[in-house]
Amino acid sequence: MEVAAPRALTRTRRIGDRVGDGLLYGLTAAAAIFALVVIAAIVWRVVDGAWPSIRHFGLGFVWSSAWNPVTSHFGALEFILGTLATSFGALLFAAPISIAIGLFLSELAPPAVRGPIGALIEMLAAVPSVVIGLWGIYVLAPFIAQHVEPWLNDALGWIPIFSGSASPSGLLPAIAVLTIMIIPISSSICRELFIGVPSELEDGALALGATRWEMVRGVVVPSVKGGVVAAIMLGLGRAFGEAIAVTQVIGNSDHLHRSIFQPADTLASRIANQYQGAVSNLQIASLIYLALILLAITFVTNLGARVVVRRFELQRTGGD
């Protein structure tokens, strides 16, 4: 019995489809290359602007505490410490609050309030930093100086960081302002991550007798903990680079005191505060050197975040 030979399939792809594939590949590749070029151009320009200070002070600039435009002695140590203190202090408060907001809006809140509350929190991210800084000057900083700092001094004054007199400008108001600026970004991402957890996993945990808290702790959070870390680190990156709002409340001191009630300064705040009024080319180069250090801190933080996220993903998938 003879079997008929199969007919060739009709070609359905046209030349325009192939051209479209090529254009899509070319445009997306060009966009990726453009991003790399922009990053390289930024790094090159910052290094070029900071080179006179790099050549004059060397790496000693990083651990020098001097900042005296009159004698042309400059150092970055106090501002590096101020940046780390404000950013990680804000992260200490913003991380649990952001995770709690994300869990409430995705798992616990009634459907009628999820939308309005989520929209209001996202709107907070759109408020200009200068407006938040002004609010910090007129509302938040006086409240902290009159109520929070005296209470902390009375209860924990034996600890050096909570000692000293209250001040409306200082490290603690800057931490509070940065916390407010981190929360909308991190909480929005956390909410989307928690919503993305398959409902079958949650329903299965509840069907096996787990309470809602046990379901959240054992199923929801472990499923997306790598993304949660990335969301928190994204907020930390925002805190590192914030200048205007911090400048308005931190006090702009050349020295970082032991107490968080006292004025301080950060890398970004010092650049924003003094660049236009710099009195010498060496001071301008030193300010750009501060920007280079801030850029390096940001890159190292993002690299560390990627390593942590990769580690969590390997643990979740069972990879090596």
SSE layout and pairings?
Layout: H1 15-57, E1 67-68, E2 73-74, H2 77-108, H3 111-125, H4 129-156, H5 171-195, H6 199-207, H7 212-223, H8 225-241, H9 244-250, H10 267-274, H11 281-317
Task: Give your account of this protein's structure.
With 320 residues, this protein is mainly alpha-helical. It contains eleven helices and two strands; from the N terminus they run αββαααααααααα. The chain has a two-stranded antiparallel sheet. Strand 1 (67-68) and strand 2 form a beta hairpin. The chain is globular. The mean pLDDT is 86.
Record keyword descriptors for this entry.
320 residues; mainly alpha; two-stranded antiparallel ribbon
The fraction of residues in strands falls at under 5%
Query: Reading side by side through the largest sheet, how are the strands ordered?
Result: 1-2
User: How many strand segments?
Assistant: 2
- Succession of helices and strands: HEEHHHHHHHHHH
Radius of gyration: 26 Å
Strand-pairing-aware structural class? mainly alpha
The percent range for helix content is over 70%
**How much is the average pLDDT?**
86
What shape does the CA trace take? Answer: globular
Q: Give start-end ranges of low-pLDDT stretches.
A: none
Q: How many helices does DSSP assign?
A: 11
Largest sheet: 2 strands, antiparallel
Task: Briefly summarize what is shown.
This protein has 11 helices and 2 strands. The protein is mainly α and 320 residues long.
